[in-house]
């Protein structure tokens, strides 16, 4: 398990190495093309040192990489700039966002698909503003109203990934406790359940409920997220949130284990159609 920046450096380096070899270049030849020493290329490819977005652009140009989506993803892994060198939207919130949260958002912004198990709260991408405020207040108790407002704004801004073209494909398994836990009061929870039903009907969202009747399950140890990315599966990563940080799992065996766990959870969960009915029943009782 590693922190976000270390994982991003290694994944970026591995992908740059693949692109270099695909272009038929040795590390020495690549270094000469961009005016560097060979050791710098080697350090970048092994993840031993960070790399600036401007340097990534130089390498991508040298390797003849023109595919816009791949360039954007690799630049996000290098830092918080887009292909034109502008800061991404979350840069404006650096003063209130912990580094681990910024890393999470940067991955989420470029992922093509997200699989998540939630055991306590509604996924951030599906929260109403009222619910988001209640969850955020509980998580960061003691922050002033201005900081709280900023964190809620960030959570809502993240939801734009579901409206992008193409949108993020979200597959979520929700433990029944997510639906039963009264966050923000009865009115807030009632509106949140309605929002979930609306989201479940979106073509880019697959929502399944894991009812209490399913008993113990492979996800009982806690929630997790699996990000998948366009162009290459080698950048896929598992994220596990903890109270003060996030852990990133990148090894193939870890990815396989969590992918199999998620597939098992989907089998034991209600179908998307039955899940929608299940949420409606709970909503009627709130």
Automatic annotation (TrEMBL):
<feature type="domain" description="HTH cro/C1-type">
    <location>
        <begin position="16"/>
        <end position="73"/>
    </location>
</feature>
<dbReference type="InterPro" id="IPR010982">
    <property type="entry name" value="Lambda_DNA-bd_dom_sf"/>
</dbReference>
<dbReference type="Pfam" id="PF13560">
    <property type="entry name" value="HTH_31"/>
</dbReference>
<dbReference type="Pfam" id="PF19054">
    <property type="entry name" value="DUF5753"/>
</dbReference>
<protein>
    <submittedName>
        <fullName>Helix-turn-helix transcriptional regulator</fullName>
    </submittedName>
</protein>
<dbReference type="InterPro" id="IPR043917">
    <property type="entry name" value="DUF5753"/>
</dbReference>
<dbReference type="InterPro" id="IPR001387">
    <property type="entry name" value="Cro/C1-type_HTH"/>
</dbReference>
């Amino acid at each position: 398990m590693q922190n976000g920046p270390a994982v991003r450096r290694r994944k970026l380096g591995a992908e740059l190495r693949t692109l270099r070899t695909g272009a038929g270049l040795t590390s020495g030849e690549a270094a000469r093309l961009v005016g560097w020493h060979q050791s710098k290329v080697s350090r970048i490819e092994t993840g031993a040192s960070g790399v600036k977005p401007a340097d990534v652009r130089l390498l991508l140009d040298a390797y003849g990489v023109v595919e816009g989506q791949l360039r954007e993803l690799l630049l996000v892994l290098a830092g918080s700039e887009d292909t034109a060198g502008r800061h991404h939207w979350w840069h404006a919130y650096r003063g209130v966002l912990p580094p681990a949260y910024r890393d999470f958002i940067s991955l989420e912004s470029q992922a093509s698909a997200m699989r998540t198990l939630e055991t306590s709260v509604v996924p951030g991408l599906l929260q109403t503003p009222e619910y988001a405020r209640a969850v955020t207040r509980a998580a960061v108790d003691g922050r002033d109203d201005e900081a709280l407002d900023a964190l809620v704004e960030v959570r809502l801004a993240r939801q734009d990934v579901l409206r992008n073209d193409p949108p993020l494909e979200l597959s979520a398994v929700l433990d029944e406790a997510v639906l039963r836990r009264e966050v923000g009061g009865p009115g807030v929870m009632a509106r949140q359940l309605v929002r979930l039903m609306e989201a479940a009907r979106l073509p880019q969202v697959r929502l399944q409920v894991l009812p209490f009747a399913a008993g113990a399950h492979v996800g009982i140890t806690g929630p997790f997220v699996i990000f998948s990315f366009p162009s290459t599966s080698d950048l896929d990563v598992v994220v596990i949130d903890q109270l003060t940080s996030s852990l990133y799992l990148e090894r193939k065996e870890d990815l396989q284990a969590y992918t199999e766990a998620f597939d098992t959870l989907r089998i034991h969960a209600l179908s998307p159609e039955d899940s929608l009915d299940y949420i409606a029943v709970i909503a009627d009782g709130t």
